Amino acid sequence: MPISSPPSFCESQASPRSFATTRWTLVLNSGDERGTARAEQAIEELCRIYWYPIYVFIRRRGVQRDDAEDLTQAFFTRLLEKGTLAAARRERGRFRSFILATLKHFLADERDRRRAIKRGGGRVLSLEWEAADVRYRIEPVDAMTPEKVFERKWALSLIERAIERLGEECRAAGQEHLFACLGPCIGGEGAAVSYARLAESLGMTEGAVKVTVHRLRKRYRQHLREEIAHTVERPDEIEEELRYLKQILDE
User: Fold this and answer.
1) Is 0.70 surpassed by the pTM of this model?
2) Span 184-226, pLDDT tens digits
3) Is residue 8 part of a domain?
4) Which among 32, 90, 126, 153 would be 20 to 30 A from 140, CA to CA?
5) Distance spanning both ends of the chain, measured CA to CA
6) Is the alpha carbon torsion for 246, 130, 231, 216 positive or negative?
7) Boundaries of domain holding 77
């Protein structure tokens, strides 16, 4: 259906009051030694969303696919069942930093024990291993350290999650086709796209397309900030993390 005027998108911000309920702060503020049920659910959700950088880090350490899958799953088992959340409360800080430090410690333990990790025990997250292997095989070959690759994939995972949420929002509003057409413009790579051509295909004026892209970009930035808020301890760390992640992607 042609759209003659730019669609509006609701706005939301993670306020200091609501920040205390984000996933990572739920983990950090959990009261008992093993963490509350909500905290464990929160960290499981964080892992489910941002597990791919963990898998890539392990692969970049020279681990083959099957062993990397086993180690990734075993890491989650330890994280979710061995009281590791108590250490998170002591160390605090960003979820990204906590995960990387905990992962390095876990891999050192596994190397020292020199035993195979078998699937099937403990809690198991349902992860898309086939998709992970396809993604990993098309990763560019570079000289970045596993730590740098982890942080880069972490930043890209945050961006992908923000775009995914924006797409879900558009679909819920019946604007799936609009998002499919204008989505490439959100990240700024739409400079080469002809707004006049897009306007003609969407039944909108060129001005309406520009306004809609502006609103989509604004909503994308809000979703990105909310995703980052889920992985840091305090609201004032969001801008710092945004700058750091941009720096990682620009390197």
Assistant:
1) yes
2) 888 755 555 688 888 988 999 999 999 999 999 999 999 999 9
3) no
4) 126
5) 43
6) positive
7) 16-250
